[in-house]
Amino acid sequence: EKQEVLSIKSKSAYMVDWNSGTPIFSQMENERLPIASMCKIMTLLLIFENVDNGNLTLDTLIPISQNASGMGGSQVFLESNAEYVASELIKSIVVASANDACVAMAEYLYGSEDLFVSQMNQKTKELSMNNTVFVNCTGLPCVGQYSCAKDVAIMFSELLKHKDYFAFSNVWMDEIHHPKDRITSISNTNKLIKFYDGCDSGKTGFTSEAGHCLCASAIRNGMRIVSVVISAPDSKTRFKEVSSMFNYAFANFQNKLVVDNDSPLDLVVNVEHGKKDTLQVVAETPVYIFASKKDKIAVEVDFEPNDLIKAPISKGELVGILKIYRDGTLISTVNVLSNEDVYKSTYFDYLKNVIDNWAL
């Protein structure tokens, strides 16, 4: 019944709740199609993974080869043989979809665009993106390069886990500074950043063979939605269709926080041989239940402690699991971690205990 509510002219479309991974709408979502610059989502994902693992900082100076500066299509006109800070190049990719910046980053991180692309294809396997093959890191037209709406949503959902990305994705207009005081003005190709309430990220794509493409994400009341359209007939349609997909999701669905990982759980967990008898615990990750606003949700949460919890225990140590049931069906399990250090009690602690009890 949910499919009929949306009429989408784009060749293929897919919408998913980010927290739970629940699909909300799909139309030819596995159809293999060219996706133009949406390929850069994977390029950015690899870049931010390199930031996370310490291989790259946002201040790293990146040299620009002649090959990189000579990339056609959308670009920020980087100067060859000059150096730019990584954050400027990332901003150029996120905001202006710059091909020259993509190739410069690829060459810096893996030595060549080809080696970077094989890493991109490696990542598709890890993420089970079964209908995607990359041939370059820019999305410039290339035989044998394709993806599908569902795979685009998968890689974009993964990119959204990197908080640094949002420092760039929200930029509406900015400037890239080149050597000799040359300046290139850039403005975000994703118009929804400015015109859709809650949209904070996205990637457009266009070539004559791919048509007009867009993958974007919006968040309201803690519910984040990812929507993708491939091959819209024109630019206006892609923005309109993704907006109407968002509207549909926010009007009809909600994300209920069932387990919060920001505050200690209301559980009594006993510790043996510790300076304390009980332990404060916290869930490792939050649990949201995605549901139609019409649905009444019956949720039960069950705690299973580890067999023997004895001191010493360090903060962050696994002490059990939570099982979350919806309408009697197990839907999620979450690790429960100690939220404090508990030291082993010593002979003197026992002695003090005995003396304290005598005092009574």
What are the defining features of this structure?
360 residues; alpha+beta; 4-stranded antiparallel β-sheet; 10 helices; 28% strand; globular
Descriptive report:
This protein is of the alpha+beta class and about 350 residues long. It is built from ten helices and 17 strands. It has helices at about 40-50, 65-70, 85-95, 100-110, 115-125, 150-160, 165-170, 190-195, 235-250, 345-360; strands at about 10-15, 25, 60-65, 85, 175, 185, 200-205, 210-220, 225-230, 255-260, 270, 280, 280-285, 285-290, 300-305, 320-325, 330-340. Helix 1 crosses helix 4, helix 1 (about 40-50) packs parallel to helix 6 and helix 4 (about 100-110) packs across helix 5. It is globular, with a radius of gyration of 25 Å. The mean pLDDT is about 95.
